[in-house]
Amino acid sequence: MMALVRWTPYKELLDMPREMTSLFGRPFRSLLGEPFFGLDTLRAPMDVYGKGDDMYVRLELPGIKAEDVDITLAEHTLTIKGERHEDKEIKEDDFYRRERSYGSFERTLPLPEKVTEKDVIASFEDGVLEVKVIGAIASVPAKHIEVKAAGKSEGKPIKARKGK
After folding, report:
1. What are phi and psi of 62, to 5 degrees?
2. Which of 71, 104, 155, 162 stands the most exposed, by the fewest C-beta atoms within 10 Å?
């Protein structure tokens, strides 16, 4: 069963600069980090890899605190959400600067049906979130499926012939 992923109408617009950059190169690169139509979405680079039977998900989340990250498991889908709220202010005698940075991200991953919340372990250190999903890629032995010829009631498997 496939997991449902929420569709956002602006995703295609947000991905357009990346697509244009991949087609034409550098001229569109400056648009990548800019919010489009006032939408502040963060790009959260995600690495997914396996070690043994376990799956690891790693996200780089600079400027985000551990308490601003939310991980849920619902209907065999792992959802990782987060928000950044940063407000920097510098006051000096002849200088004043204030910068604000806000944004959110959401990433989803389908997981096997056998995974429960007890199988998911998350840790956050130095702006890097690592989620371990125990047993997510445990190998299941392949089962042979017999192919029957149409119109024949006997269940004889079809054998390939060697050609010349």
Report:
1. -65, 140
2. 162
Local confidence pLDDT in tens for the 164 residues of the chain: 566 666 666 666 777 776 766 666 554 444 444 444 444 567 788 999 999 899 999 999 888 889 999 999 999 899 999 988 877 888 888 888 888 777 888 899 998 888 999 999 999 999 899 999 998 887 667 788 889 888 765 555 656 566 55
Question: 132 φ, ψ to 5°?
Answer: -105, 130
Give the CATH number, domain containing residue 68: 2.60.40.790
Say whether both 13 and 61 belong to one domain.
no
Q: Which helix (H) or strand (E) holds 82?
A: strand 77-92
Tokens 């992923």 sit at which residue? 5
Burial (CB count <10 Å: 0-12, 13-18, 19+), residue 106: middle
